[in-house]
Amino acid sequence: MPIPAPAERAGAGPSPHQNGTTMTAQILELPASVTAPDHLIATPSGDVTATLQTAMPYRIGAPDIACRYPVIIGEDRVIGQARRWHRDWWVDSSAGEHNLRRPPKGIPGIDMAAAYLAEEYAAGRVTAVPLDQVRAEAPAPLCGPVPLLHPRMPVNDRNIKSALTAFAGLAAYHWRAVSTGFPGSDNHWYLACELCGEWEGPRYWSHLRGRNGQPPSPYRHDGGCLGEEKVRALITAYQQ
To answer: What is the pTM of this model?
Structure first.
C-alpha cells in the first residue's frame, strides 16, 4: 500500500539519494574497545545466566538502511550485524539469525549484541566477512514512495491508522522514509532529514511526534540540522 512521495519543501536540500551520493548519520563509528566490558547476556527466556568477558576488540559501524549495525573487528572484518525489533535485539551472522531478547537493565542492547557476536567469533562459531561485502549486499533505497507498513508489521486497521498518522507527521516535520514503511512507534525507522538534506539514519517515531500536544524538540539530529531558529521558522507546528 504505497503512499505518495513527499513534495519538495521550503528549505529542504536535495535528497542524499537524488544526487547519487549517500549521506551518512553522524553516529557512524563508536570507538573500538580495547577490552570489551563485562556484559550480562539474557537467554531466550529472559533470564540472566552468564557474565560475558571478552578481550576481543570490536567497534560498531554505521547502520544500513535496514537499521542493522555491523560489528567490526580488525581491518574492517564484520562478524555479524545487530538490530532492534520491539525491544528485542537480534543478531545475524554466518550462523544465522538469533534473538537475544531484551538486554538486562542498564545494559544497552547494541552492546549486548556486539559482545555476544565477539564471544561467538572468539569461540569459532561465526566467521568474518569484509565490510565492503556487507555494504554491497545492503538493501538499496527505494526510488519512489515506500510501502505504508514495514514488512514485519501485520496489516490491520490499527497499524494502518498509525502508519497514516506517522507519514502525515513525517511530512509536517520534513522527514522522509528511505526504504521501508511504518515499523511501529518504538522500532528504528531509517529516515532522511529534508531540511538540511544531509543527514539520514535510524530514528524512533515516538521521539518525533511530540508529547501532550506539544511538538518535538527542534534538535532534530546530530549536527544540529539548520539550527533551532531556522527549524522553528520552517515548521508550522512550532509557530502555533
So the answer is: 0.71
